[in-house]
Write a structure and sequence with these properties.
Strand content: 15-25%
Number of helices: 8
Largest sheet: 5 strands, parallel
Shape: globular
Number of domains: 2
CATH class of the largest domain: Alpha Beta
Radius of gyration: 18 Å
CATH architecture of the largest domain: 3-Layer(aba) Sandwich
CATH topology of the largest domain: Rossmann fold
Structural class: alpha/beta
Helix content: 25-40%
Order of helices and strands: EHEHEHEHEHEEEEEHEHHEE
């Protein structure tokens, strides 16, 4: 089934160019010129991806992002940000945006980003030393990661994870005890040969808030200073539940 994309931007030229490139790539595309229209169309059509400018009339992009992420069937969100909007960009990622592109941008790059957030990778083969994997489900103490069903549970409750958060968690849990740099995680988890490494930092912080009893003293996702991050399984330390 053809994926659908909603482009929300108050600049008609940007909307038209982005829609033309996305259409040429095979996506079904809808457009909105402001925040309220974007929210209405998203409610009506339930797009797979929303390409969202942060500076919108009527309803700001961050508020619209928050509303989109709060629904049961949340679309992926790719933000469009100006070069100097780093704080807003980080806040957008913290609200659950899946990716961002900085203006001015290449429409072809944006199409690649949209394809990336839509992609559902085939679960990789478990490496030597990986956690127990039964029918595509990784189990580590009270954490269960269903890579095929793209669901994660902690202590019996389902974790509310964005696409990017799930991809990162599944990769780390499938590769326990190994430290990865932020550059490696960008490339191996999301297929980026380029990108802001703060994207990894933000998503690690969000995962810790959802996984760790005390996110300031993480037991599962460890920071390896000067390198990056490592997943430390509870199973390795006799703390299985």
């Amino acid at each position: 089934m053809t994926a659908s994309v909603l482009v929300v931007d108050d600049d008609a030229t940007v909307r038209d160019v982005v829609a033309r490139y996305l259409g040429a790539a095979g996506y079904r595309v809808a457009q909105a010129a402001d925040g309220p229209a974007g929210l209405r169309i998203a409610n009506e059509s339930e797009p797979d991806v929303v390409v969202l400018d942060l500076m919108l009339p009527g309803l700001g992009g961050l508020e619209l992002c928050r509303s989109l992420r709060g629904r049961d069937r949340a679309p992926a969100v790719v933000m469009l940000t100006a070069l100097g909007e780093e704080d807003d960009r980080v806040l957008g990622l913290e609200l659950g945006a899946d990716d961002y592109v900085t203006k001015p941008f290449s429409p072809r790059e944006l199409v690649l980003r949209v394809g990336s957030v839509l992609r559902r990778s085939v679960p990789p083969e478990a490496p030597s030393g990986a956690l127990p994997d039964v029918a595509g489900i990784l189990v580590d103490g009270d954490l269960r990661v269903d890579r095929a069903g793209r669901r994660a549970e902690l202590a019996g409750g389902e974790l509310a994870l964005t696409t990017r958060e799930f991809d990162l968690l599944a990769f780390l849990v499938a590769n326990p005890g190994r430290a990865f740099t932020r550059t490696e995680l960008l490339a191996r988890v999301w297929g980026w040969d380029f990108g802001d490494q703060s994207t990894v930092t933000v998503h690690v912080r969000r995962l810790r808030e959802k996984l760790e009893a005390d996110p300031t003293r993480p037991r599962r996702i460890a920071t390896i200073w000067g390198t990056g991050y490592r997943y430390d399984p509870r199973n390795r330390h006799g703390r299985n539940s």
